[in-house]
Amino acid sequence: QFRVTTELVRVPVVVIDKRQDRLFTELKPQDFTVLENGVRQTITAFEAERAPLTLLLLLEDSRLIQYIRGEVIRPAGIFISQMLEPQDYAAIVAFDLRPRVLSDFTKNRQQLITAINELARGWPAFSESNLYDAVQFALLGGALYDYEYKGLAEVKGRTGVILIASCIDQFRSAN
């Protein structure tokens, strides 16, 4: 039997440029300086990892945006098919007066693409949009008809929302 004592400090880091529009992903240990009380520390372990992402695409689908609908739906499909990594999860929620879950959180790219294609083939039912309630639903979840959606707030780890909307809200009811 023996004892080992070690002090390993894990420091997760995300590096972006000054304008915050470029993410640096190919960094090496020599790109960093770690100081403790002004004294340079040796980096003994370095692991470049990309944590899985859980992403919510929140897309307005009202007649209000019908003239740019293609510019909304097509990029969403490209993002899903080309930008998400295999370990990433995504969900798609569309909204007009009410939100509707097109695809709950999944890694299945085909399921997500199918949801985007169904959205593209359909036609908006309402001219109005309810942005605030849709955002609240997407983040916090709730009951929708006979479906219970958990929302992004329940997800642990790296999360993000891509909102594509006119940002015109005609029926806010959320507090």
What does this protein look like?
Helix 1 (about 70-85) runs antiparallel to helix 2. The longest helix has 15 residues, at about 70-85. The protein is α/β, with parallel strands linked by helices and about 180 residues long. The strands form four sheets. Strands 7-6-5-10 form a four-stranded mixed β-sheet, with helices on both faces. The chain contains three helices and ten strands.
Strands, helices and their partners?
Blueprint: E1 15-16, E2 23-24, E3 34-36, E4 39-41, E5 53-60, H1 69-83, E6 89-95, E7 99-106, H2 109-121, H3 131-140, E8 142-144, E9 147-149, E10 158-164
Parallel strand pairs: 5-6, 5-10
Antiparallel strand pairs: 1-2, 3-4, 6-7, 8-9
Provide the helix percentage.
10-25%
If helices are DSSP runs of H or I spanning 4 or more residues, what is the number of helices? 3
Output the structural class: alpha/beta
Strand content: 25-35%
Count the beta strands: 10
Order of helices and strands: EEEEEHEEHHEEE
Q: Give Rg in angstroms.
A: 21 Å
Report the major sheet: 4 strands, mixed
Give the termini separation: 60 Å
The strand line-up of the biggest sheet is 7-6-5-10
Which runs of at least 5 residues are low in confidence (pLDDT < 50)? none
Rounded mean pLDDT score? 82
What's the shape?
Answer: elongated
